[in-house]
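Hi there. Long-time user, first ticket. I'm pasting a complex I've been working with (about 599 residues overall). I'd like to know whether the download I got is complete or cut off, because the file seemed smaller than I expected. Thanks.
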Amino acid sequence: MKFSEEFESRFTEMLTHYPTKRSVLVPTLLYAQDEIGSLTGEIIAELAQRLDLTELEVRNVISYYSMLTTKPRGKYNVQVCTNIACMLRGGEELLDHCKKKLGIGHKGTTQDGLFALEEVECIGACSWAPAIQVNYDFHENLTIEKMDKVLDEYRKKGTQ
Amino acid sequence: MASLVSHPDEVRVVSKRFGQGATNIDRYVDLDGYKAVQKALGMQPDEIINEVKSSGLRGRGGAGFSTGMKWSFVPKQSAKPKYVLCNGDESEPGTCKDRLIFEHDPHAVIEGVMIAAIAVGSHTGYIYIRGEYRYVSIIMQKAIQDAYARGFLGKNIFGSGYDLDIYWHGGAGAYEVGEESALMESLEGKRGIPRIRPPFPAIVGLWGGPTVINNAETLASVPHIMLGGSEWYAGIGTPKNGGTRLFCLAGNLNKPGVYELPMGYNLKKMIYEVGGGIPGGRKLKAVVPGGSSTPVLLPQEIDVPMDFDSLAKAGSMLGSGGVVVLDDSTCIVKFALRTIKFYQHESCGWCIPCREGTDWLKKTLTRFHAGAGLKKDIDNIYYLAENMLGKTFCPLGDAAAMPTMAFVKKFRKEFEDHLEGRPCPFEKVGAVEQLPVMA
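Hi, the file is complete. Here it is re-exported in full:
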C-alpha cells in the first residue's frame, strides 16, 4: 500500500498528538480516501495493521461517518444541501436540476466517472444558501444558472 | 470564502477582526492578539475562572451553560492529564458562525483554548473541526504552526514556565459528534456514540482525564473578556446573558448573513431591520430562532429579546444562533418533514427512542405530506415526539422532538388541511403512500 509522502509525514506527526494510536483514525481515513478515491479493502487492512485495530473496527468507524465511503465515486463529488435553510432558498430545485443535467441520482456517478452527486445535510452555509460543495470547495448563493456555470467549469477542469 | 455583511446595530467583539487579515499572526498580534493569554498567565487560575463567571458568558453551542461554572467543575488535582477540547463540529442546521471565526480569526480560538487550559491546569488542547470545513482546517493548521514558531505554544510559553500544546483534529461528517461526549469518542477514533453521564466530562473526559469542552465561539469570546474585563462584557448583554452573539440569519430574508449583535437584541428587529425583512412582498409565517432543534415561533411571538432566558420563557431556545425565517409560501408539513429527515439521518442509532422515533416520524410525515395522511397521524406525530423527549442518551432525541411538537401544536390546522389536499398541492404520490401507519 503506497500513500504519498505528504500523507506519510502527516500520519507520523499526527501519531505524536494523542496518547492513543487509534485517535488518528477518523482524519486519516479521510486523507486516505482523498488520495485513493475510496476506502478500499487494502487501505482498511493497512490502517488496521498500523493502528493495532481489527479490520472490523475500522469498518465500524467508516460506516458511521457520512463523508467516508468504501465505494469509488466520480472525480468531482457534487454535494447539494437541501436542509432547511437551503430548502427555503431553492436547494431542492438545484438538486433536481443536477439530477437532470448529470443524468444521475443521489449517490450516483456519471458514466465518464467525472461527477458524482449527493444530497447532503447542512454544510454550514445557511446564510449563503442555497449552497453546495464540490469535493471540499463551497459554492454559495446559487441559482440554476450559476449552478450550470459551476458544473461547466469542473467539466472543463476535469477533461483538460 | 463566505461573504461578510454589516449593520449599524452590530457590536463587534468576536467578529472585530473579521476581514482584517488576522489569520496572519503578525496582524493578529498588532490587533491586541495574544495579550489576553499573557495576562492570564499572570493570574491565579481561580481569578481567571471568576472573571469568566462574572462576565455572564454562556455556552454558544446551544445549551447556554455558564462557561466559568463549567471550568470550575474540573478538579484541581488529577492523576490523569486534563484536556481542553474546542468544539468546532458546527452542524446544527441554520448555523454557520464558527466557520467564519475559524476563517477570519483562528488565533482567537487558539488563544481562548490557551486561557481555558491555564484556568483548569491543562497542558493539552484540541480544536475539533468538522470534516467538511477542509479549507478552514488548513487555515487553523497554519495558525497553530505559526503560534509554535513564535514560541506562543509548546514548552515554557511566554517564558512563564507553563507548557502547552494545541492540535487541530478533523471530523468526517456526523452531526451527532457535535454532542460533547460523542465528540470525545470521535476524537478517540471511534464511532460518535454518546457516553452516559454522570460522570461528566469535567471529571472523566478524553482518555479518562478531566476535560473542558467549549464551543468555538465561546472560546473565541474569552480573550476579549480577559482584556476588556468581565464588567464590560456583561454590560453588553442582558442580565445573566453576557456579551454578544453571532446570529446567522438565514431563510426568506432580504439580507441574510452572520451579524454580531448584543445578547437580548429584539428578534423582530433582527428580522425586519438587520435582515432586511421578507423578500417578494411575502409575509412572515414562522421563525426557527436558534437552529433546527429549537421550537418554531409564530409572527405574534417574535417581539422577544434574543437571550437564553427570554427565549426559554417564550417556549423555545436561543440554541446555536441560527435564525431561520420562513415566509408564507412555506409548507409547514414539508418543513417539519425536512427537519425530521435530518435527525433521522443523523441519529447514531445507539438508543431506541431516538432511532425508532425519528424513523417513525420520518415515515409518517413523508406519507402525510404526500397526501396519504390519516387524521390519527397528527396525534401520532405528536405522541412519538413527546415520547422521545428526555428519554434518550443525548440531546439529539430532544432536538428532533422539540421542533416537531411545536409544529403540530402551532400549525395543527395546516396538518388538518393536508388531509383535504390544502394548502399544499400534494406532491407526487407513489411508494410513500405504502409506508406503514402506526397502530
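A couple of notes from our side: The first strand of chain A starts at residue 76 and ends at 81. Chain A has a mean pLDDT of 97.
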